[in-house]
Amino acid sequence: MVMKNEEKTATKLNVVPMSKATEKRLNKVLDEIKGKDLFPEKTEFAKKTLQDVKLPM
Amino acid sequence: MINIENYDTTFSVNNSTVQYLFQSSGKEKLIKGVQYSKFETKNGEAVYNLGFGDYDFETKRISDRKSSNNGDARKVFNTVLNTIPKFLKEFPDFPIFIQGSDSHDSFEDECRISCSKNCNIICKNKDRRIRTYIYFLDKKIKVFSKDYTFYGFDEVKKRFVEYEPKNKYTAILVYKKK
Fold first, then answer.
1. Global ipTM
2. CA-CA distances (angstroms) from residue B101 to A12, B19, B121?
């Protein structure tokens, strides 16, 4: 029973771990892009699509 | 929770944007970014728009125009989908809007200028991104539906309808169940 639970947990948390070097590389990029709207055209497109649409909830 | 491999992410929250980054380790090591950008509809309803693309070290921007074909598409898409529960855990009161950048009206004309596929009447690249989201979402819909409500945008009716797997939609809206 214990083994079964452990197996289930391991399957659920199937995340490829990040090395320290990768984390450092990603954090450097995060600093460069932080707060910038990276997809302004996409946001405008979304606004246009939803301009006359009522959201369902 | 998705039960297949996905990449670990880092994230930052700044004003109206939430950004997740991860490294795709396929044929090459590429940095990919997922961004949720907040905006308001004309009715004053706040929505977060999902954007996803590759980080370009030269321009220091993320582009959603190219397909990197890095050989790990399943893992990458599951990573992108896995940011949805992460995001909604932090911002449970806002829906997420998902729409491909290849779904806009002028895409087909732009695509035909440089495309080598020689499509006849229907452009095979149009709506390709949302089709990919739908493909991956359909596979996990039972798991996701326990905690989230999905709506698909019906292009003919010009409104959201309850999400049904295998249907055609041009956009998706996701809410966290309360």
1. 0.86
2. 31, 18, 20
